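User: For a reading group we're discussing how well predicted structures match intuition. Take CAF17 transferase. Before you show the prediction, I'll give you the sequence so everyone sees exactly what went in.
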Amino acid sequence: FRLHRSAAEEPHILLECDSSVLDSIQKHLKLYKIRRKVTITPCPDLSLWAVIPGEQPGDASSLPKSAEQALLLTPDPRAAVMGWRLIAKEGANLSEIIPGSHVGDVQDYHRHRYKQGIPEGVKDLPPGVALPLESNLAFMNGISFTKGCYIGQELTARTHHMGVIRKRLLPVRFPEPLPSPGVPEGSEILTESGKPAGKFRAGGGELGIALLRLAHVNEPLCIKLGGDRVKLSATTPEWWPKAAAK
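Assistant: Thanks. Here is the predicted 3D structure of CAF17 transferase, as structure tokens, for the group to look at:
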């Protein structure tokens, strides 16, 4: 998030990241400072909130004006169905910032994003395994096709413009909540005839996200757990571009 308001101001960028990889991200960013006067500092005094919309996604103008008390309140850049990102001082009173809001559990948030097929963090996007286009990052403002010279740029741009992407992350649903500990991450997903269809990434309860071959999305799918076969179904998110699932 860009915190400075004009080019005349000293640039200040606030980077949201998976807290489990905070140290490795700092080390990675410092590799690219290359004699520049750049300060990279964690912000433990800030708290991050997801403001999830009701039945219909709205715009920031529909939020109460008292939301200006927040350090940052902006539409989630990934998809309108994810509402807004709110960043405030640790311990801030959320009911004062957004009167009438209900503070839910973090699992409510994860259930919402799994239902919408929105990946987040290293469980959904394992480093060295997840590919940007297969992870739908081009749909979520996660890839630049105009910025020059970044690692993997040529392959990513060529694949995007050719339009040949055979696997994508998709929301999946099981008929009922699975018994603990649930489905192991990386479990193979099969078609009814036993053909490999993809791999389960992560989830909670009866919802999850999986990397699936688009050719098998509309087929009956299953995962082998022990000696049983657990059925699951996949859907194409409504917020995707219309031609994306073809």
